Amino acid sequence: MSHLLEVRQVTKIFKGGTKALDNISFFVEDDKPSIIAIAGESGSGKTTLGMMALGFVMPTMGQVLYAGHDLQKLSGRESTNFRKEVQAVFQDPFAAYNPFYKVDHIMEVPIANFHLAKSEAEARRMMEEALVSVGLRPEETLGRFPHQLSGGQRQRMAVARALLLRPKLLVADEPVSMVDASLRATILESLNKLNKELAVTILYITHDLTTAYHVCDFIIVLYRGSVMEAGEVDTVIGNPQHPYTQLLIDSIPWPDLQRQWGQQEIITTDEDKSSASRTGCKFAGRCPHVMDKCKVSPPPLYQLDDQHVAACYLYDNQPVMRGEQLGTLFKSKRSTLPANGVATGVVP
Amino acid sequence: MTKPILRVEDLDVQYYTDAGVVYANNHINFELRPGERLGLVGESGSGKSTLALAILRMIKPPGKIAAGHIMLDDIDLVTLSEEEMRQTRSSQISMVPQGAMNSLNPVMRVKDQLLDTMVDHDMGLTHPQMEKLAIDALKAVELDPRVGMMYPHELSGGMKQRACIAIAIVMAPKVIIADEPTSALDVVTQRQVMQTIGRIQKEMGSAVILIGHDMGLMAQFVDRLAVMYAGKMAELGSVQDIFTEPLHPYTQMLIDSLPVLGKRGVFHGIPGITPLLRDLPPGCVFHDRCPHAMPICKEVDPAFAMHTPNHWAACHLYPNSASNEVAGAISGAVPSGTTKS
Amino acid sequence: MARTKMILRYIRRNPMLGAGLGILLFIIIFTVFGSFITNADSAYPLAAPASQPPSWKYLFGTDGQGRDLFAVAVAGTWLTIRIGLIAGVIGVVVGTALGFAAAFYGGWFDLGVRLVVDVLLTVPGLLILIVIASALGDKSISIDGMALIIALLAWLGPTRTIRAQVLTMRERPYVMMSRLNGMGGPGIIFRELIPNLLPYLGASLVGATTGAIFASIGLAALGLGPQRDPTLGVTLYWVMTQNAFVRGLWWWAAVPIGIVVLIFIMLYFISAGLDELANPRVRRTA
To answer: pTM, whole model, 2 decimals?
Structure first.
């Protein structure tokens, strides 16, 4: 039984020495597709992880496997399947389009290459259906050049493309960060539809925890290439346990007058470019609860709950989860939300 | 009622392009009180950045301020000469720009850029006095004075943004316009920078206009909030009023679409697309997306008027409201030719 | 149809390009029309009475060896441009291929290409060409032979430009998107990258052709050209060696000089116009 996507002890070191990912492991099953957020700030490694899932960047150590096959060793047939089944939506709505061609190009090409339609008419019909399902009108969008559409329309079309291709895995790299606020909900809704109706697993890469909260089921919080905390999104965001996540959540400007940000003091390091601690926990230099042992070796993942882990010595009385097991958190057991929507804790 | 430090009256800003006239700002009216924090929120194409540039008289051809007044204290900035305006910028009104990376001169040390700002204004200060002001500014933004001797590329994103803030406050202006000052920063640095701006602003007694598209940031930072849509100001009120009882349907739908803790999985986007500023529809600019659109909305552009104390909106849902205090009757004519009495 | 309208409207906004293309059109008409009304032999010695000033019979006069200068103008303009085009096209094709390969494969290949290009670009090209041309000895060079010699150096500039452009384009999301669309390497190069390179290819072509034309004129004027053929450069060579000025035959010099200046202006306008097209920041904001 192979996982849909497996990241096995992956480390990535770029030319110049930056370590973008440090021994990350997790997997995603394909039986009950969910939306998993890979959250972190710039330098956390989240984009690199996304690029690896797409096969654009290869790990320095470790392996990335799709349907059990190592991405660096795909046969011709496996490679075609991989390309067909793994798709992406990128951050910049303009840059994803080749300015030389009309916008239809991004849908026509894969339909042709993957033989998804038997005739031009059928291809056209598929394209129109996909556009309609994301709230666009084909007569207003097809046949135009990218610069003639708005950013929101272009991004919606990129999601329509994903709908049309019915991938098994979609990597969405900051899909709404460059889109206006009023359109975000629409695009997120389309992503939700992809997951619920078409059974597509989505890796949602973002630095914006509010949209991650809105649309994702699970979340992995990265900091400087390592996993800090992971679990069900309600628990992690509603009740963060790792000091880094707590700092992040505390700094989010929620559009809610009842919630004041900044209750917690921020400890600034000298914004140094080199890691504060070469060994030990990556967050030790900024952590208000730092202990001596934090600087010696990085903490493992402590299991706080059925669906919640945190890599912090504050919880060293909890059982340890081995890195490779991280995927077991993402079983689709939804905690039931009471009517007012406030999660009271993880419910099996 | 304290006298406003800045009053924008009936401001129209237009751009003349090959493709037609772009009505970037139409009949903008609002006041800024001394020491207050005003947020200006809008999506792309709403005209908010144009408004900031207009206040600073930095609109370049083919754009121009077609009509209106910008009263700073009692001086109309629109009537000032270029030289007088140059003296006003940075000393009376300053700007913290978006994208600090591009706003700092890469070949000058930070301190020199601070001094540069002061030297260009006839402040009548000696060099040591200006140096002290520069150091004070750096300390105010929580940068070590040694940073003054560094070049921009040696600073991190957050530090560069603080350097820009230092440049904006070094002459203690009365009004600081911050145009998306934190858009390139991560969320923790963003909070720090905004808290810094807030603290300085209180210490100096300056007023701040925060421009952005992040309603959450507005909720956490500003006292009053103005909502812009397609070149017009749709609503203006205290941040409590706007969030708890929004008047304009656009504001209502915008707030409804925001993710809030506890409201997972509920998506309320606003259908339709924002009109292009050079192709504005007749009547109310929002009517084609508005769930409460009435026949009158397609023909007559609603006036921007006060409906409850200090809460203004431009919407036909509230027809019999007190006339506004801003000078003269607002004719609310979007240049499609329709006027409202 | 929509594209031609777009192109024409653009030319109205870009007068430099329009002017350059206008001159090009004029030169083409002149050459084509001229080739119908003159006899090709008239461009060679002893075709007409020598040293005649311009008159109705001989519009541009004749030179000291009896060539009809109008025929020389018609033939020479075309020959000169032909040399420039052949060398320019070869230069751009080779340069593009090398530039692409260097940008895509990187590593040692890229290093090698960069080294060769950077070193050779610093050496004065004309000098190299003079050495090569004179090494060929007494054998008189043909038109196409000249073009090939010049092509030896014409690929340097384009390689650099194209390589730089491909390096930037390679990281663009739409290239990633095309991979996700199932396209392979060659498909991406030809269908995605090259269409966006067209402005740069155009500019490189103009640049390479310009360089080639002037290199050929320079070489020919120094006596290293195809002396039997009436190219503009060779004509200048005769002007100098036959002491046209001392003999008062000013029209003999005016004809080639005038045409060279015209070609220069045309190439300048076209290249400035293309620069505006390829470089959005230079574009006059609409």
So the answer is: 0.80
